[in-house]
Amino acid sequence: MKATKALVATKNQASPTTPDSIATDKVAIFGGSFDPPHLAHFEIILWLSKIFGQVIVIPAYQNPLKTPTTIPLQTRLQWCKKMCENIDNVIISDIEARNNRVMFACELARHFYVEYFGEKLLSNKQKSQNFTPPLYFVIGEDCLADLYKWKNIDELSSLVDFVVLKRGGEQKSSPKKISQSKSIKAKKSNQKNFSNPNQNNVDFVKLHYVDFCPNALLDFKLNSGDISSTFLRKSLKQNLNNQNNNEKILQALPKNLRDEVLAFFAKTSLQF
């Protein structure tokens, strides 16, 4: 898929777990280790593609707050591209691979803000607290507790709104715990959808909570109750000689990646 600055029209599809409406000129950034990419990743990306004009998926060089990845970045990039090859308005960005280093969320936000909306709009956004951002950062709810640790979180929260994916069965993080962090200063919006957000001037990042439970997980759940890249890696490594277990584990992977992922783990001697 080739990157393009032209935003494509989104499909008009509403459901209880999707925002009521959102303009097609919005861009969502979904970063992650994708170590490996799995079915929950795919369904989140597919869901985002129906709401946003453009979805930018960024396989990370290394998540600053997590342990080092085990699968090479170029392999993870290739798998993400193949996983999303039939979704027109999704771009798999190799920006971290090209820079060959960790890129913090704020740096990524600045880069894509300028690329898609121009330096002038970025300048206007930074000067006006009432400016509605065209850029959204997608995170899992488990990231909220560490959000105050993110580099330049003040600037980041002035550039983007956060789409917070609430995983089914998990306990909701407490907004009060995060709002007590002095390093987070922005507008508060705890709306469960994107329509008519209520903006109040308080110390908080702007969050849009979304209840999300991938349909594919209804009939297949791992022991953890959710698909986990860590669990998949360990399970694949431990069950390489058990074809029945492999087939069950591979159900957690997109169909067009299953053979490649299994072959990768069969040929490597990674230690977990």
Automatic annotation (TrEMBL):
Cited Pfam families: CTP_transf_like (PF01467)
Any one GO BP annotation for this protein: NAD+ biosynthetic process
Enzyme Commission number(s) of this protein: 2.7.7.18
Key words of the record: ATP-binding, NAD, Nucleotide-binding, Nucleotidyltransferase, Pyridine nucleotide biosynthesis, Transferase
Reactions the enzyme catalyzes: nicotinate beta-D-ribonucleotide + ATP + H(+) = deamido-NAD(+) + diphosphate
Top-level lineage group: Bacteria
Molecular functions per Gene Ontology: ATP binding; nicotinate-nucleotide adenylyltransferase activity
Residue ranges of every copy of the Cytidyltransferase-like domain listed in the record: 29-184
PANTHER family: NICOTINATE-NUCLEOTIDE ADENYLYLTRANSFERASE-RELATED, PHOSPHOPANTETHEINE ADENYLYLTRANSFERASE
Protein name: Probable nicotinate-nucleotide adenylyltransferase
Organism the protein comes from: Helicobacter macacae MIT 99-5501
Gene name linked to the record: nadD
